[in-house]
Design a protein that fits this description.
Largest sheet: none
CATH topology: Arc Repressor Mutant, subunit A
Order of helices and strands: HHH
CATH superfamily: BEN domain
Shape: globular
Distance between the termini: 26 Å
Helix content: 55-70%
Low-confidence stretches: none
Radius of gyration: 13 Å
Amino acid sequence: MKFTREELATHSLTGKESPAFIGVKARKPQLDPVRVGDIRLHVTQKYNIDTSFVNKAITVALADAKKTKKR
């Protein structure tokens, strides 16, 4: 199952607080790690790429969803 646009706009990949915003912004909840793991496994096996590329793509999707939500 994919993530909804709302989940992408309101969650983070790790659930950790950003070092740039410690004490300034509230920490966002983590995306479901089981679903993220399933996506990583599927994409890395199907396309024979490194997990770091998948993580980067998820991070970009999160940033794009946040930008769309602000509009």
